[in-house]
Structures are given as structure tokens and as C-alpha cells.
Amino acid sequence: MKRKLGWFGLGFAGAELAAAILPPLVCVPAAAFLVCLALLWIKRRRDSAIPVLGVLCGLAWFLVFTLVWVRPVKALAGQTVTCTVVVETDADASYSESRLRGTLRLTEIDGRAANVKVQCASFPGESAGERFTAKFALTELPANKYRLSRQSKGVYLQAEYLGSYHPLDASRAPRFALYRLRQRWSATLRRWLPRQLDGIEAAMLLADKSHLDDSVQQAFRTAGVSHLLAVSGLHLALLCGLLGFGRKWKFYKPLILLRAAAALFYLLLTGMPVSVSRAGIVLLVALVGDFFLLPPDLLTSTSFAAILLGLQNAYAPCDLGFQLSFCAVMGVQAAAALARTEQCAAQDKPAAVKALCQVAEPVQTAVLASLATLPVLVAHGMAASLVGVLCNLLVVWMVQPALQLGILLLVCSAVPFLAAITNLTALVLSLWLKGLLWLVRCCAALPFASICLPQRYTLFALAVLGALAVCFWHARRLRLYLPAAALCTVLAVGLGVWMQRDVVQINLVGASNNPCVVCVQNGQAVVFFRGGESNWSAVQNYLAGRSRQEPALVVDLRAKPTQMEFSAAEIVTVQELADFTTRPVLDGLTLDLYHNKSANLAVLGVGERHIAVGAGRLELAEPVRVDVLCAPGTLSDSVRPDTILYTAAAPRWLDDAAGCTLRYGEDTPGLTLRPGRSMIWEEAQTIAVQ
């Protein structure tokens, strides 16, 4: 077996990821079955022991890490403690003035030295690096989709600020000095570049997304190039490539040391997120190979990085950036192998065939990298882009000049007598970024640029295609796999479209205390609107990839509707209607609208099910019975639900909900209904009434 370290690292990281996701009662028997199966296979091929050894080492290290480091931290849950804390660099503005939210590092707990990271939703502060003592209530992280991501960053508890604030001197740790340097450089870029373009450059060069416009982020996400706004191996390689000076100087040892120092500085400057750390380790391994005149191998270096990151934190493979970067490397390696095969086959062919192979290589790389990352995107509930390959081919080459011009702008702006060059550089960079953004927006505007695939069904289809690939590879018939995979894909898409026909998806979107309710059926949407501009922005982001066009109907439930620009085919303001109105909506659904004084209620009929959304305390002569009431601000005797779906952590009406089933979800909970058939809850757990 070639690349033994690569296979070992793949098994090591995969085992840690499985152990973090699966409950112990499932993980232990599954691991035992896997080992037994692998032992039977080893008798036939001894090389198979390498990935199996990686799996066993990954499981063993995850167990040790949990017992030695994680369990003592989780033992603090349920305690109220007085701590000395340091505000970490990921802190940003909370909803209250002079408050932050983010990660806190506890350096002292009740007078005892400690080193514990916690997540806190609101605490007093102005910037990263501040130190203070205060009283906190520690609890375990909620079981939601953010839990594994926070654990991958070493955060295993959440804290609630209780008061007793006392400021201390700011931390003098080097990471905060580098953070302040990054903020100063980001401010310099924003001073010289126009709005929107400044946020793009700061995000690509300095990993500062705090000033990135929402519409820009949405355009990059829809076009499938959001990875360009997150500093990764691509950015690190492009920046360190500035110090390459061609192949003649590639093995010049002082220059290798300079590139290594630049890479290390850039790692520390960006805060060393997992994806950048992975890329940095791979680059440093490649530089070590150049130093000792050894050939580098991308897959082996990536697996080595995965092992190091997994040893540092057994939850590191749960990070989305880690998974995307690892899968992208697998796709790039597959594309490189395919390109080598094509080049060997084209050696005796005409020049036109060789030129075609050279043109096809970047396309193949983009396609295979996108396909390799598709399972990760679907597993995390993210939208996939059908124009990602096209947009990557159009704009990736523009990233390196943008980074180079950004560095030049920072250097020239620091020298007063170079003001003319600074202005010229800022102008050229602005035009370059404007062209890049124009291309991204053109791709994002294409039909079906972004689609949200059904999670479980898509993962099942991808698993079937993967199993087919293994079978054809084992039978040495990989050439026949392409037509078989194409046929299976067409059948899967057709079956999926048929199964999703007339299915209704209802989700709570926006602020947790007063969210909107979005109903999607057959690519059309109805929005039950409450709240303000931020809620409407959240609705638009949610609908990207789920609806082929603007909402068919917006139902404004606000008691005092203010002037807002709704992009919808039809807008209904309930406050202006009669006391009761009914109408059909979408495909076979009904909508009943109730209005009484300053209270409004909408009841959506989906077959025999009735879903209610309200605003205010409605008073009716006869109560309305519904199956689900979505995120009420208050409970009314006129609405009698069987189940209440909500997103607020501690709603005021909780004590009055006796007799109702409570379903809670922190982020966009909802339900999927098949008219006349089933109702399935999504991201919503049952809460026991105390």
C-alpha cells in the first residue's frame, strides 16, 4: 500500500469524527464490528492493517482525551463560580450596548488556577484581550448543530454572566498584540477602499469578516466560492508563493527558511483557525521536504496535519473547515491522478489532443474538488451550488493579484511620501475587486445557482454511489463506473423530485424571541412576517437555494406595520383586513386570517393539519384548535394548540403551557409535512414542562 501515513491519518481522523458524532452505545459496537471485519480482510491483504491501526489509534486517543481533558471540564457544569477571564479574539458585539458575545478563557476559578474555554452569549466588554473578574453560572453546551463546532475549538461549556464585574489589566499575550495589528491593517484597507470592496479584501487577506457586507457574503455563497472569503490553504500558498522567485531558487535554504517564517507569521496573524492550521502544517512539511531535497506528497502531508490537529484536540475533525479542506485535497489528488493517466494516454496522440488534456485539467480539478466536498455541505445542511465550478474557474486566478495588491497597499500606506503610489494602488485594487465581485454576482444570478438538497436522501444517494465505486474498483472495472453512476444519479434525482412533490416545509427564521415563519412547497414560498429588517434579511438568506423565485406571498402580521421593502409577488397586511378572511395558497393549501384590535393570527391548512402563527393576544368568540402554534409572544385562550414550536430559551408564557407538547430548537427549527400523510419534526427536541 502506497502512502501508508496518508491512510493511517485518514483512519485516525475518521475515527475521531465518528466517536464525536455517534453515541457511545452505537460507537462501541460499531467499532468492534469494524475491527472484526478488518481482521478478516487483513488475512487476505496485510496492507489493510494500516487504516485499521489508524482507526484503533483514533478511538483510543479520543477516549484518553475525553477522560483526561474533557471530563474534568464538564464536571464544572451546574456550578456558580467567580472567575478571572480573558476575552478571546472571536468576541463580537452582542445585542445589548457595551456587551460582547463569544469565547472566554477562564484563567482562575474560585481562586484556583485554570485554563478553560467557555461560550458566553452576553458579557460586559469592548474588545479582545480584556481581563476581568465576575460571577458566572456554568452549564453544558446545548445539544444543537453548533455543539461539535464549538468543541472543535476547545469549548466544552457555556457560561451565563451573573454580575460582580471588576476590570483588570489587559492581557499581554502575543496573540492579542497580533490581533490588534490585524485590526489596524484591516482599518487601513477600509480607509483606502470603497464600501463592500474593503470587506472583501480584509476577509481574503486578514481573515477579518467583521465588516463584510451581507449581500456580498450571500453572493459568494450562492456562487459556490465562499471559500475565497475564508483564509485557507489557497491563500497561504499564494502569499508564500510571492517568496518563491521561480524554480531556480526553490531549494535555496535561506529562502526556504524565510518562506517558513512568513507562513508561521501569517498563521499567528490570522488566529490559527483549524483550516489555516491544517494548511500551514502541510506547507511547512513541504518546505521541510524542499530543505532536505525530498519530494512532497499532498495527501500524506494532509494526513500528517490531521494527526497533529487530532492529537491537540480530539474534536478537531468536527470543524467544518477541517472537513471541507480534507475532502477538497482528496478531490485534488483524484484530479491529479486522472490528469497523469490522461497525459500518459495522450503521449502518442496529436497536439490537439494534448492541448485538450491541458485545458481539461483545471476543469477536472474544480469538478472533483466540488464533488468531494458535496457530502460535507449536505451533512451540515448547507446549500450546494450548481455554478461553483464555473465561478471557481472565472475568479480563483484573480485572488493572488488581489492579495498582492492588498499587501502593496498596506506597505505604501505606511510610508507618507508614497501617497501617490498608495492612491494608484488603491484605485487598481478597487477596480480589480469590483471585477471579481461582478463575476461572482453574475454567476450567483444564474438559474439554479444554489440549491438546498434534502439532507438524508442526498446522503443516502451519495453513499450508494460510493459503494458502487468501491465495487467497480474492486472488480477493476472503473471505466464502467461512469455510465453506471450517471444512470444512478438520474434515477436518484428523478425519484427525489417525485418524492418531494407537494411536500411542505415550515421553519422558524430570524430573531429567537419573535421569528418569522417560512413555508416552502414545490419551490414557492409563503412568509409570515414579524419583526424588523434583520428578520427579513434572515428570511432572504434562508430562502436562497430553497425557492426558485421571490416569495409568492408575504403575510404581514405586525400590529403596527412600518414601511418596509418586501420583494414578493403579493403582500397582505392582516391589520388592514376584515375580522376573518380565508383564501387558497400555494398548491392545495388554505390560509385563514383572523384580526381583532391589534392582534393577528394566520392559520395554514395542510391537509388535515393546521399550523398557526400569531402576533399579539387574540380574543375570539370561539377558540381555534390547531396542531402547531409557532413561536408565540404570548398565549391566548382563543388559540388552543396541541404542540408549541419555539426558539426562545426561556419564553414568558412557559408556565401557562400546561397540556401542550413543547418543541424547542435553537436555530431554524421546523417541520416537514406530507399532505394527508406524515409530519416530521426538524431540529426540534421535546421539552418536559416542569
From TrEMBL:
Pfam families on file: Competence
Protein location: Cell membrane
Keywords per UniProt: Cell membrane, Membrane, Transmembrane, Transmembrane helix
Keyword Nucleotide-binding recorded: no
Domain ComEC/Rec2-related protein: 204-475
GO CC annotations, alphabetized: plasma membrane
Membrane topology: Multi-pass membrane protein
Cell membrane listed as a keyword: yes
Membrane-spanning residues: 20-42, 49-70, 225-244, 275-294, 377-399, 405-424, 457-473, 480-499
Protein name: Competence protein ComEC
Annotated source species: Gemmiger formicilis
